Amino acid sequence: MEKIHVCACVIRQGENILICGRRKGTALEGYFEFPGGKFEKGETLAEASKRELSEELGIKVFTLDEIGYAEVKSKGRLFILHFVRTIPLPGETEKLNSTGLEGQEIKWVKTDTILHQNLLPSDLAFARFLLSGIR
Fold first, then answer.
1. Number of folded domains that form the chain
2. Between 20 and 30 A from 118 (CA), which of 29, 53, 106, 126?
3. How many Cα atoms sit within 13 Å of 46 on the Cβ side?
4. What is the mean pLDDT of residues 9-16?
């Protein structure tokens, strides 16, 4: 089974957390997720999160640590999601608006309302973990 590693960046600002919509015309359109994407060959978690957020949102970030992971099987592939705490560098969040560089919707939501967003199932499970008070 092919294994695909994916970074899912958890970006908080005060009581808010950043989520992104799946682009129109793509698989799972209409769902929201933590921003990020697939690792390229040889990339570390920090390198993948920095590259993905630069490409998707046009922001520079500092990657802290992995705070969880999930495995999702789909169409003969195993997706390994690495949830990572990520901090935008000073002045970077001011670059964000309601649309990412790839046309996806982006929004800040109150952390305590994240379970009411239409999150992908794996991201929803991780959001429950976040709200459990462990992190």
1. 1
2. 53
3. 5
4. 94
Statement: residue 135 has pLDDT above 70: no
Rounded to whole angstroms, how far apart are CA atoms 91 and 83? Answer: 23
Quick one: which of 104, 34, 46, 44 has its CA closest to 70?
A: 34
Contact residues for 117 (Cβ-Cβ < 8 A; gap 6+) = 19, 32, 109
β-strands 36-38, 61-74 pairing = unpaired
Entry pTM: 0.91
Residue 63: give its domain's CATH number: 3.90.79.10
Residue 114, both tokens: 């994240």
Spell out the SS3 assignment of the chain. Answer: CEEEEEEEEECEECCEEEEEECCCCCCCCCCEECCEEECCCCCCHHHHHHHHHHHHHCCCEEEEEEEEEEEEEECCEEEEEEEEEEEECCCCHHHCCCECCCCCEEEEEEHHHHHHCCECHHHHHHHHHHHCCCC
- Strand pairing partners for 21? 32
Structure tokens at 52: 């993905």
28: closest CA among 126, 120, 127, 122? 120
